[in-house]
Every structure is written in structure tokens, then in C-alpha cells.
Design brief:
181 residues; alpha/beta; five-stranded parallel beta sheet; 52% helix; globular
Amino acid sequence: MKKLTAILGILLSVNSFAEGMITKPFISLAKEASRQKLPWKFYAVTKVHPSPWLKEHLKDLKKFVEVVGPMPPVKLKKFYQKIDLLVMPSHFETFGGVAMEALLQNKPVLLSPTVGWGHTLKDYQLNDWIISFSDSKKVIKRIRKISTQTPPKKLLNDIIKYNHPNYIFKQYEKVFKEVLK
């Protein structure tokens, strides 16, 4: 079994409310992994914006999570290839493009049930890839379970197909024709 070493989580620094709702469960997860002496590294790709919430939690963030800044697509692709899996503990995420990016790099993703990709994962029988992040011990067990899995080829092919510009253009075209009737 491959040894799990690197976990990527995304912090969306939009405002202090969002930081608390996304960052708090991610830091809690990293703390629990440290408490269990797991050799896991937690990364966040983000631009950290000063806020009251972050000021209060910056010590924990720096202690348990390595924050790396935004990067160009080629570098980001290489970064995804180095990690073992992506976690998205968001309380709400309409689409979750980051999940799609990780999947396309053949990485498993562990998402909160409120991330937009949750329904898609269920469609491909990847129910174990969805979990509430309220209990870090349960999340760690789930990470261990899915960390060696890879996305099904059909899912990857469908992501490519349904996100291809030609397909999207045809869908827009259908909508516009319907509206103009």
C-alpha cells in the first residue's frame, strides 16, 4: 500500500466568515493528524488575506498547514500530481472546480456533502468520497480508506466530454434557441 504523505485542502479567503467555515475544519483535521503522529503534510493553495478571523487563527494555520500561493496552471498541475488527495471541507460550494482539477490529475477527492461535485460522485458510486468534516477522527479514517483509490475512467472521460468547449457551446445554443422561440 502506498504511504500517504501529502494532502491538499483549499482555503478560499473571501472574507472572515468564509475563512472560518472552510479553514476551521481543515485546521482541525491537520491538528488531529498531528496528534495521531501521522506523517501527513497539509497544504493550502491560496492568497491569505488579513482578517480578524485569520489573525486569531494564524498561529494554528502556520503550525499545521503549509500555505502556498496561487500558481500558474502548469505549476498547479505538477502540484496536484505530487499530492495524494484533495480535501474540500467547504460548508457550501456551488461547483467545486478545484475538485474537478484534482480528479483530472487522477487524485481522489474527499468533499463535504455541500460541495457541488457531491452529486456527481454519488452518480459514479463514490459515496465514500463524501463526508461531513465535523469529526476529524472519522475524516482521517475515511482518508485512509480512499487515499489509494483513483477516479473511475468513465468519470474522467465524462468530465472531459461535458466540459469541452464544443459541448458547452452546443448547450448554450440549445438554451438560446429555446429562449428565442
